[in-house]
Structure formats: C-alpha cells, structure tokens
Amino acid sequence: MTVLVDCQGLTKRFGHKAVLQQLDLQIHAGAAVALVGANGAGKTTLLSLLCGYIQPDHGRVEVLGHQAGSPALNGRLGALPQDAQFDPDFGLAMQLHWLARLQGMSVAKSRQETERVLALVDLTAEAGSKVAQLSHGMRKRLAIAQSLLGEPELVLLDEPTAGLDPLHAKALRDCIQRLSAHCTFVISSHNLFELEQLCGTVLMLEQGRIRQQVAQVSETAVLRLQLCQENYQSLLPLLEQLPGFVSWQCTSPLQLELQYDAVTASDFDVQLLQVLHQQGIGYRQLSRGQSLEQQLFQSGG
Ligand SMILES: Nc1ncnc2c1ncn2[C@@H]1O[C@H](COP(=O)(O)OP(=O)(O)OP(=O)(O)O)[C@@H](O)[C@H]1O
C-alpha cells in the first residue's frame, strides 16, 4: 500500500510546552483518515507540520516521499487550514485562478480547474463576487475549493464542516465521499458522526502522540437493538441460532448489542426483525454499528 505520510519521532514545542512528543505516524492511500483529539491536543499543529507551514523541533516528516514543505508537493498536496484567508477585495474565481497558476497550471487549465472546484462547493453563481461579500460559510467553502485545485493525491482538511449550514455540510460530506475514490483525505474534526460516515481509520491524538487507532472496516458488524420490554430472555436462544450470529451483550436494561459476521450474514438484520415479529417482541430502534464515540471513549483505551 502506498505510504502518503511518514512521521518518525516528531516533536513540536511552543515555548516550554511540548505539543507533539516523539510521534510516529504512517498514513496510507485509501479511505479517508480522521484525526480526533481534545481542544489543544495538537491536531492543527500536526496538519501544519505536514503542510510544511511550521518546522518540527525533532523528527522527520515525509509527505508523498518528500520532506514536508518541498516545492515538489505543489499540486499534489491540498490543504484547508483552520484559519484560511483570502483577499476580501478580489473576486473568488480570480483568486482561485491565481492559486492554480502558482501551482504551475496553464491559463486554460487554471480556468477549467477554477470552474470545477467552484462547482464542487456550490459557489459557481458567486464566481464573480468579491470575497468581502461572502458569508462565513461561503468563505469556508471557497477555502475547501482551493484545497481541491489540481486534483491533489492527498488533501488535509482542518474542521471542514465547522460553520457550514446542515445542507452544505452534507453536500461537502457527499463530495468528500465521491472524491475519496481518487484521493486520500485526512480530516480533523470534532464531529464524530461525520467522521464515522467518511473515514476508514480514526487516529486519536492525546498527550502528544497517536493514542488510539480505530479501523472502522471490520468483518464483524454490530447491531444495536432498543427493546420496549425487559422480558426478552426468550429471545436470546433464538438469536444465538441465527446464521452468522457471533455474540450478544446487554449494554443497558433495554438495549442489546449484537455482533454478527457481516461477510456471511449480510441479511442478519432482516432475520432479526423476523424473529422479533414471530415472538411478538416490540422494539423501539434498530441501528447499525458501535458508534465511534463508544469505540473511542468506552473501550478503556
Ligand atoms: N503558534 C503557537 N504559539 C504558541 N502556542 C501554540 C501555537 N500554536 C498552537 N499552540 C498551542 O499548541 C497546542 C495545540 O494547539 P492546536 O491548535 O494544534 O490544537 P488542536 O488539537 O487543533 O485544538 P482545537 O481542537 O481547539 O482546534 C495548544 O496548547 C495551543 O495553545
């Protein structure tokens, strides 16, 4: 698998404060990678190091086989910085066009790319407007458009949907999902629901290091079943007989968590609903998976 990011022994201090300490990290090409951690954990610092905006005190940062910040990464690495700024007095399309030209694109290619990325973030109608005329959310979408110029192989997004209305946040998630077929995203966000939908791997930053790595793709799938009544004991032996059944766990008085083999029993949920119906057992909700929140904060690690 292609290694896109390779960090070894990365240490970054601000004054006496060590934000990253001997951090090792490898990111491979493929499904989007989430970066999570408390406020001040160092997510933006790590992304800034990968972009070469700041330098490490110790350690090595390689991106796409080059030292971070190398001109060789122009057009191959895209980034949405947390505090991305544009000149308020110039038009959107004009500024994207300049940025594309700075990446080395021809005039024609720059125009084409500008149109493409503005369409991706639903800003085509505002192409001629000045940045000063845009709302906060529109500026954010413009910054995202900028990160996608030139179809980079790796795109680092620092809190991409923060400040976006729900409709545009969803549109952006759909866009990231579509583009993920050809490009690897690293997304820093506090929105675990969003990361759950978008990312194959979740990296949790704590005390300067990658504390946990959660792979979300698994052969064992989980269903959460919220029941209406507590006397469901008769149900358990029937569940255990269902093809693909792996285990059950009672997570609260009315909630069961069921594990099953997602490869051989893709219709396990249908079978489960049939058993509930046959037994006359009412349920409130059936949902998929162990939430990312549970995986990160209830696994004891
Ligand atoms: N330029 C700087 N000078 C001094 N301290 C800094 C600087 N940049 C970041 N820090 C400190 O480094 C720590 C990590 O900050 P960083 O912005 O990387 O965290 P974060 O995980 O992105 O946080 P948040 O979730 O709040 O965005 C914080 O304690 C912050 O105060």
UniProtKB/TrEMBL annotation:
<dbReference type="Pfam" id="PF00005">
    <property type="entry name" value="ABC_tran"/>
</dbReference>
<protein>
    <submittedName>
        <fullName>ABC transporter ATP-binding protein</fullName>
    </submittedName>
</protein>
<dbReference type="InterPro" id="IPR003439">
    <property type="entry name" value="ABC_transporter-like_ATP-bd"/>
</dbReference>
<keyword id="KW-0067">ATP-binding</keyword>
<dbReference type="InterPro" id="IPR003593">
    <property type="entry name" value="AAA+_ATPase"/>
</dbReference>
<dbReference type="GO" id="GO:0005524">
    <property type="term" value="F:ATP binding"/>
</dbReference>
<dbReference type="InterPro" id="IPR017871">
    <property type="entry name" value="ABC_transporter-like_CS"/>
</dbReference>
<comment type="similarity">
    <text>Belongs to the ABC transporter superfamily.</text>
</comment>
<keyword id="KW-0813">Transport</keyword>
<keyword id="KW-0547">Nucleotide-binding</keyword>
<dbReference type="InterPro" id="IPR027417">
    <property type="entry name" value="P-loop_NTPase"/>
</dbReference>
<feature type="domain" description="ABC transporter">
    <location>
        <begin position="5"/>
        <end position="232"/>
    </location>
</feature>
